[in-house]
Specification:
5 helices, alpha+beta, five-stranded antiparallel β-sheet
Length: 254
């Protein structure tokens, strides 16, 4: 049984270092990995001077939001790592849900791992990896949550927890994230628990069955969002019975 082979993960397995300011919590974690850190390290910062999102985009990083990165070393075989962003999205969703008031707008996940409140983005997740000279593999999960500050010129509609009636501080939200991530990574079980993770993800997904456009590096494709497969790939119904699996892209609704 899965429970017989699963290694128990507890809060005590993780460490946390809180910084006042850094260029990027992801960069800080990578530097620690290159210096030999054993992983399971959270780094948070009150402010980032060089925060970034997917495809090198600038991530606004003023004080008042949560900026956190988790360093994992050899978290799973390479062929199972693709499901980790889904697991992290589930954990972040759980953490944010715990600080939202009952009257807040719907909290959902947009594929693969943006967190939306009322179809407006409040959190981005950036996963980066690097092979280390000693043969280990460092994987860094960066998480930025809009608590009281939002971008001025966003690519998507945005919101923040304050607009949704939450009075949570970055420290309070991180405490929930710290606990939720440990719980979800135990379920994920080095990628062996992908079935449980995809079920949890589908239950909180945004837009399944709706028309979407996926922007790829070289083109845009429209169709119906048919959900995700068991490996976490987006399934796009482009018509005429053709389902296209997509591993990475920017999703727009409508």
């Amino acid at each position: 049984m899965a429970s017989d082979r699963r290694r128990r993960i507890s809060l005590g397995d993780f460490r946390h270092e809180a910084l006042s300011e850094t260029s990027s919590t992801n960069s800080e974690c990578l530097a620690r990995a290159r210096a030999g850190d054993g992983g399971n390290l959270w780094v948070t910062a009150e402010r980032q001077t060089g925060g970034r999102g997917r495809r090198g985009r600038l991530w606004v990083s003023e004080r008042g939001n949560l900026y956190a990165s988790l360093l994992l070393i050899d978290p799973a075989p390479m062929e199972r790592l693709g499901s980790l962003p889904l697991a992290i999205a589930v954990a972040v969703h759980q953490a944010i849900r715990r600080v939202l008031p009952p009257g807040a707008e719907p909290l959902e996940v947009k594929w693969p791992n943006d967190i939306l409140i009322g179809r407006k983005k409040t959190c981005g997740i950036l996963v980066e990896g690097e092979g280390l000279p000693d043969g280990r593999y460092a994987l860094i999960v960066g998480i930025g949550v809009n608590i009281s500050v939002m971008p001025d010129n966003p690519l998507y509609p945005v919101t923040c927890l304050r607009q949704q009636g939450s009075a949570a501080s970055p420290e309070e939200l991180f405490a929930h994230l710290f606990a939720a991530t440990a719980e979800v990574l135990e379920i994920w079980d080095q990628g062996r628990g992908i079935g449980e993770i995809t079920a949890l993800w589908r239950a909180i997904a945004c837009g399944i069955g709706e028309k979407i456009t996926v922007n790829l590096p070289d083109r845009s494709i429209s169709g119906q969002f048919a959900g995700i497969d068991d490996n976490g790939l987006l399934m796009l119904d482009t018509g005429a019975g053709r389902i296209m699996p997509i591993a990475a892209g920017d999703v727009f609704f409508g």
